[in-house]
Amino acid sequence: MASIEEIRKTRLEKLEYLKSQGIQPYPSSTERNTSNIKAIDDFDKLAGKEIILAGRIMSERAQGGLVFFNIYDGTSSFQALIKKDEIEEASFDLFIKTADIGDFVEIKGDLFLTKREEKTLKVKEWKMLAKSLMPLPEKWHGLKDVEERFRKRYLDILSSPDVRRRFEIRSLMVKRIREFYDRAGYMEVETPVLQPLAGGATALPFKTRHNALETDFYLTIAQELYLKKLIVAGFNKVYEIGRKFRNEGIDVTHNPEFTMLESNEAYADAAGQMKFIEELFREVTRNVIGKPEVVYGGNTVNFDKPFAVKTFFGLIREHSGLNNPEQASNDELKAEALNMGVKMENRNTRQAFLDGIYKKAVRPKLIQPTFIIDYPVEFNPFAKRKHDNPSLIDRFQLIAGGLELVNAFSELNNPIDQKERYEDEERKKREGEPEISPSDADYLEAMEHGMPPNGGIGIGLDRFAMLLTDVKNIKEVILFPTLKPKG
């Protein structure tokens, strides 16, 4: 078998031959007048008429004086036949001599059915549209390497209908979510990606510098604070679908660059947002998959039934050795976390211990859609305290298939309480906690002008796409995931 270098050398020679014959191997335009899918769907109407198709040669099989080949144009694959005795001999010879799998060609001819009832175009004329110099994946052994699939996603998609379908599902998912929000009366907005403070969440940011302003900026970790400023401004329902950047580790559910939908609604609370989310996930799943349930990791996840609602401490109690996690000391929590094999990475706060136990013992077991409520106040500096128990916050997360899909809460709109929360975050930072939300004086000032009660939602679109396409690695639903450069 020829090496890739030998294949490329041969194709370069074919390219030079085309040019020597006065043929432009990369013309600017094509006379294509229909698509492959229309040729299939409207075959009876088009039969007997001369049509022009264009696409990439995906397969080829020669039988003496005739060649069957398939072209793909992004809509479908279509078979073509070029016969030596029904086309100019020079044109036939040129095809045999220069056309390879991977080339883009234009073909003109008539439609007919083969003896096997295959819809086919009998080629009268053909034209090179783009000469390929490298072979397609079936002859490129690097695609057996999973990481190379991600590095060369264009080949991954080209060689795998399943991968292509996965991203079509993701695109449709985003479209249906946007339609749901639009129908609900939300206004789509855009907020800064470059921010002077990495606020709105607890995560390590990426830092950059604007030379003209001589100022450091951070790539957004969340848009939450800007959306709430718009609530102060008088917009009642706003949302944004955008890229977020968190300078964190990479694993099967985390990529440093990811996509979230964030929204805020004035005069709403966590309870109302919970109903909204349940309707959204049920409708989007039904419209994208065709039914309100998906198979994920061998389990059927049903969005049609009412979602379960469980408390955070209740789940810790159910799935750990802690009988009273609410009152457990830091030493008891740390011992339980270490006993479970939780890696604390020098994080020694009560929140870190509880979160580690939850992620290790609880979250993977939540297969059916489940709302988790009643989190400790230290879990989010922007969520409103519960009136009947100020040590808890009015927050919920949605888990399905063991994936964290949604984070939402009744937004804190008391600037005094918010200032105290910021001070607590700064205390955590002094104690060595790396992921804190820095004090934002501008946001506090906006709150002091008056912020109505409101509910906020964050939806991890990559993870929702994982669930809908039954993949276990977030890289499978991100077209170009973050990878360490080669070399």
From TrEMBL:
Localization: Cytoplasm
Keywords: Aminoacyl-tRNA synthetase, ATP-binding, Cytoplasm, Ligase, Magnesium, Metal-binding, Nucleotide-binding, Protein biosynthesis
E.C. designation(s): 6.1.1.6
Entry GO CC: cytosol
Domain called Aminoacyl-transfer RNA synthetases class-II family profile: residue spans: 167-485
This protein's record includes keyword Cytoplasm: yes
Top-level taxon in the UniProt lineage: Bacteria
Pfam families reported for this sequence: tRNA-synt_2 (PF00152), tRNA_anti-codon (PF01336)
UniProt xrefs under Gene3D superfamilies: Bira Bifunctional Protein, Domain 2 (3.30.930.10), Nucleic acid-binding proteins (2.40.50.140)
Keyword Metal-binding: yes
Record text on cofactor binding: Binds 3 Mg(2+) ions per subunit.
UniProt feature, compositional bias: Basic and acidic residues: 417-433
Region Disordered, annotated ranges: 416-438
Family per record: Belongs to the class-II aminoacyl-tRNA synthetase family.
Oligomer status and interactors: Homodimer.
Name assigned to this protein: Lysine--tRNA ligase
Organism field: Candidatus Taylorbacteria bacterium RIFCSPLOWO2_12_FULL_43_20
Gene (name only): lysS
